[in-house]
Amino acid sequence: MYGSLFCQLYNDFGWNEYPRALGRRILTWLDGHGLRPARALDLGCGTGMLCAVLTAGGVAADGLDLSPDMIDVAKTNYPGLAFTVGDMTDFTVEHRYDLVTCTGDALNHIFDPDAVGRAFACVRRALNDGGVFLFDLLDPDEVPAGEPFEAEHSDGTRVRFETVTDGRDVRLTIKTYEGDALKFEENILERVHDLGDILARLERAGLEVIQCSDRLLDTDGPGTTRFIAARAI
Ligand SMILES: C[S@@+](CC[C@H](N)C(=O)[O-])C[C@H]1O[C@@H](n2cnc3c(N)ncnc32)[C@H](O)[C@@H]1O
Q1: Are 181 and 203 in the same domain?
Q2: For the segment 9-43, what is each residue's pLDDT rounded down to a tens digit?
Q3: Mutational pocket test of ligand 1: of 16, 18, 45, 65, the residue with most ligand atoms within 8 Å of the beta carbon
């Protein structure tokens, strides 16, 4: 679970740049597919940035996240949007959506493949017929790992990031220091899912895969993320 200090770091430390840029690319992707969704739901919405970019682009977006602290940050950031605490593996909606998104590795936070299947079933029920589910996953062929690195926050706090992987699970450790004193540590675990299993579970949930690629847009370079889009049938 993402705790409050970590949520604040997420807000302050530039990770919001990923959903900000991705939101614009999703709007371009929708245009390229001739899709004009009126309403979207973002699962694992974090600080709400993707919802804000989609809404500004004409797709009214609500957010759902397991972490109450993330939802507090999202509500503070975007008081005009609707954010709810909820589990993407077991949620219901008051009305259906034309688009459901789940990005920033949010699905990699779910370890049990059956729970991923339950999330897909909930997504299908949340979508109008013909609606689209667009999500990203850590690419099994490109599991990220890297040298630890440190960044300095404007308030003088030092933050150290370290990613370790055994090829199946990824552990991201974030430590913050004041001077040399460790102030805070959080470990985020992510599961690298089997792609064949993911695609089979989508089909079983009534979601027909229309894209599975190492890039969202043809103009993107290859990355460590796989983008999958599926249409509700
Ligand atoms: C790496 S963050 C990505 C946040 C946001 N999508 C972004 O790109 O900035 C993953 C998010 O997924 C949320 N999350 C993890 N498991 C979840 C679940 N079962 N249901 C809903 N949200 C979940 C976490 O609380 C966290 O906010």
Answers
A1: no
A2: 666 666 778 899 999 999 999 999 999 999 999 99
A3: 65
